[in-house]
Amino acid sequence: MTTKLIVGLGNPGAEYEQTRHNAGWWLLDQLARQYNINLSPESKFHGLTARTHINGDEVWLLQPMQYMNRSGAAIAALAHFYKITPEHIMVLHDELDIPVGAVKMKVGGSTGGHNGLKDTQAKLGTPQFWRMRIGIDHPRNSTTPLQPVADYVLKPPKQSERMEINKAIDKAEDAISDWLAGNFERAMRVLHAK
């Protein structure tokens, strides 16, 4: 049996709940509904957690309750406590460099300036964890291109964009099922197909 960890990145608080930066939380919430499990507070892991079994493996879900730039502490705390290695960690997050409605998956690589990924990499001591990247597009491609990135990610998407993000989340949910089963190539092929 392998222990795996799926983490949704976001910011706590009602004012951030519907913002683009919380796309990772949206996907994690959907996974919790899919597996019919409830996340509950766990102070030693600085967030909401749930445990289930999928394909014979123990799987933890984690929603850090610290701000995005400090979310690595929660991930490292749970991973170290249960001896979960980075290659068995999947971090769900918003991605500026991917168009709205698209989703991509990779292991390792650059943080792309994403503060949640930066902190996770620093706390785990390695970039070699999986990432599910939910496209939110970049403000330079929007109708208000002079909008600072920080303002853009901390605002809700337009209704049409949210519908596209929801479709991407559905695709990501299917890919995570493949990832959990060890079908990495199939998961990436489905997500990255043109």
From TrEMBL:
Coiled coil: none
Site for Stabilizes the basic form of H active site to accept a proton, residues: 94
Membrane-spanning residues: none
Site (Discriminates between blocked and unblocked aminoacyl-tRNA): 11
EC number annotated for this UniProt entry: 3.1.1.29
Location relative to the cell: Cytoplasm
Source domain of life: Bacteria
Keyword flag Cytoplasm: yes
Residue positions binding tRNA: 16, 67, 69, 115
Keywords: Cytoplasm, Hydrolase, RNA-binding, tRNA-binding
Catalytic activity from the UniProt record: an N-acyl-L-alpha-aminoacyl-tRNA + H2O = an N-acyl-L-amino acid + a tRNA + H(+)
Major subcellular location class: cytoplasm
GO BP field: protein quality control for misfolded or incompletely synthesized proteins; rescue of stalled ribosome
Enzyme class: hydrolase
GO molecular function terms noted in the UniProt entry: peptidyl-tRNA hydrolase activity; tRNA binding
InterPro entries xref list: Pept_tRNA_hydro (IPR001328), Pept_tRNA_hydro_CS (IPR018171), Pept_tRNA_hydro_sf (IPR036416)
Active site residues of this protein: 21
SUPFAM superfamilies: Peptidyl-tRNA hydrolase-like
One cellular-component annotation, GO: cytoplasm
Entries under Pfam families matching the protein: Pept_tRNA_hydro
PANTHER family, per the entry: PEPTIDYL-TRNA HYDROLASE (PTHR17224:SF1)
Function summary: Hydrolyzes ribosome-free peptidyl-tRNAs (with 1 or more amino acids incorporated), which drop off the ribosome during protein synthesis, or as a result of ribosome stalling.
Family listed: Belongs to the PTH family.
Subunit structure of this chain's protein: Monomer.
Name of the protein in its database record: Peptidyl-tRNA hydrolase
Source species: Hydromonas duriensis
Gene: pth
